[in-house]
Design goal:
Number of strands: 13
Keywords: Signal
Organism: Candidatus Rhodoblastus alkanivorans
Order of helices and strands: HHEEHEHEEEHEEHEHEHEEHHE
CATH class of the largest domain: Alpha Beta
Helix content: 25-40%
CATH architecture of the largest domain: 3-Layer(aba) Sandwich
Structural class: alpha+beta
Pfam families: SBP_bac_11
Protein name: Substrate-binding domain-containing protein
CATH superfamily of the largest domain: Periplasmic binding protein-like II
InterPro entries: ModA/WtpA
Length: 330
Amino acid sequence: MKFLSRAAFFAAAALLVAGASAGARAENVKLRPDFAPPWQGGANNDVAPAQRGLDFTEPDADNLADFHGSPQDPKLTLYFGGNYFFATAELVDTFEKQHPEFKGRIYWETIPPGLLAQQIKAGGTITVGNMTWTAQADVYFAGLRRIKQSIDEGIVEAPAVPYVTNTLTIMVPKGNPAHVTSLSDLGKPSIKLVMPNPAYEGIGRQIKAALGKAGGEALVKAVYETKVADGSTILTHIHHRQTPLYLMQGRAQAGVTWQSEAIFQEKAGHPIENVDIPDAHNATAIYAGAVVKGAPHPDAAKLWLEFIKSPASLAIFEKYGFKPYKGGAN
């Protein structure tokens, strides 16, 4: 992928940060705009560089990291639940090599699935900052449970197409300065957390289930009620970008994410690592997609749904720890 061309830069930055003391590390990272998204050097933009016009991106001020390509007359529009934003550029590139007629004409979004569902209900219209635009979805991707619910609600059309699974991990700053070793540690008042907001992000349900397995309802309440109330848990809106960013800025010491997200951060050379969650306490997500009801490009949507469960697509997902879907309930 194109973002790997910046790996040497990120590795050097990570070494500088890792070499500092825990306290100095947090202060240094706060001042580094290069740790702010977007993180992939334009790789997730399905418009040729020569056709992009003025390049105006200020990572800590003007940044549309979860919106990719051009919404002007696309041939295919994809709404991805955002926790594999890092894989989408390679997925799109591989699809376009198989189907050259789509080259440079795919637009996609990678915000949380609950927000994407709201955008679908709004006819594809969304506002970010002072900008409002409309891009009606052809395919919607989320957890299998949400896709089935969306079929029942008439938002998308059957069948649901599952393709990969994912598991949870605890993301921490490099060096794990808070010495987090398990989910149970997250209930400690002294450990500052950044956690996905269950109101927007499907991962919240799996995290609560995992916390319950590790420490019962008391741990769930400590993380998602007591610590939210006292400010030691920050709730995110886009966990797949906010969690590592807040950890690198020193605003939090741990947060639960999908394993794939931690693998991406490490591949990118960011000062992030993760603490494994044992199988007995973990949760597994099943990712699925479906054609959106009234999709502008239904044939293209079906073509993409065939592609995303193909060996070429699954090989891309496997780079980040996803596993092919083998069947079973969500």
